[in-house]
Amino acid sequence: MSFSLCFSASVSKPTHMLFDPHQNRVANAYKWRIRASSAAPGVDLTTLDSAIAMKDSEAVKKALDQLSETGWAKKWSSQPYVSRRTTSLQELTSLGIKNAENLAIPSVRNDAAFLFTVVGTTGFLAVLAGQLPGDWGFFLPYLIGSISLVVLAVGSISPGLLQAAISGFSSFFPDYQERIARHEAAHFLVAYMLGLPILGYSLDIGKEHVNLIDEKLEKLIYSGQLDAKDLDRLAVVAMAGLAAEGLQYDKVVGQSADLFTLQRFMNRSKPKLSNELQKNLTRWAVLFAGSLLKNNKEIHEGLMSSMSKKATVLECIKEIEKAAR
């Protein structure tokens, strides 16, 4: 479970030209017509919908800024200014984060359950096969028992395949789908409130993510020039899913990818952060994201419901703004 920062253009070669100036599409993109709509009475969301469909982050920003000026997009960029400070584990506990001291420890719940099931099942079947008469009772237990070794070998050679199997197995946990929805909805909502446009998401097992696309941030990351302001915003979004799980569950499961993403951002920042400053940034980002989610609990839960129903990005934004009223 994670959020992924994707981009509309690469540093070396642009991959998207989303508005054609020669067709006068940019000039007309932000002329708003007031008309009735069942989803947003009195507001035309056509431009926003088109910008999302074309995956143009700048167009989405401008459309949402315009909607904010009209008073409709109240939650968009409602927390534009973030600034880290020294944060303790006690503050996370006071906020309601459970087992705050263990947040950064990767969970092995799903991995252990999968491997235990494979070993236990194959072991049991091997014992039963040993009761067969003749050569079948001799060779079959060895064949069944070797399945566990094959699984471990696949995990060593191609970890991605093993992880896909573990993700599929994890769906049998009663809380797994809700965890995914809670985690990804947190990334979505916090990014939206910090003014970072969302252009896509997925709750599919093994593909859980929220896509943020921003050409400016892409260039800063690739050049290793992320300043403190941009790093703080990205850190809060990255830790939002972890914070959401920590507020709800005793054990966080989906933090590994998010911590990896945050580490990548910190490695690309300037000036470089010491180990202690990196730990503090992580704690502060969890605290800030958790505070936003706690203060907007109903909006977060409404967004979870919409995303679980595979709502479009525009429908998710409508849900956020409807719940904010």
What does this structure look like?
The chain has 325 residues and is mainly alpha-helical. The protein is 59% helix and 4% strand. It has helices at residues 25-28, 46-53, 57-69, 89-95, 109-129, 136-157, 159-170, 176-193, 215-223, 228-248, 256-267, 275-295, 297-308, 313-323, and strands spanning 4-6, 198-202, 209-213. Strands 1-3-2 form a three-stranded mixed β-sheet. A hairpin with a 6-residue loop joins β2 (198-202) and β3 (209-213). Residues 7-39 have low confidence and may be disordered.
Give the helix/strand layout:
Layout: E1 4-6, H1 25-28, H2 46-53, H3 57-69, H4 89-95, H5 109-129, H6 136-157, H7 159-170, H8 176-193, E2 198-202, E3 209-213, H9 215-223, H10 228-248, H11 256-267, H12 275-295, H13 297-308, H14 313-323
Helix pairs in contact: 2-3, 4-12, 5-6, 5-7, 6-7, 8-10, 8-13, 10-11, 10-12, 13-14
- For the residues shown, what is the average pLDDT? 79
Question: Which structural class best describes the helix and strand composition?
Answer: mainly alpha
What pattern of helices and strands is seen along the backbone? EHHHHHHHHEEHHHHHH
**How many distinct beta strands?**
3
Which percent bin holds the helix content? Answer: 55-70%
Biggest sheet details: 3 strands, mixed
Overall spatial form: elongated
**Radius of gyration, CA atoms, in whole angstroms:** 23 Å
Q: Give the spatial strand order of the biggest sheet.
A: 1-3-2
Give the count of helical stretches: 14
Keywords for this entry:
three-stranded mixed sheet, 325 residues, mainly alpha, 3 strands
In short, what is this structure?
This protein is mainly alpha-helical and 325 residues long.
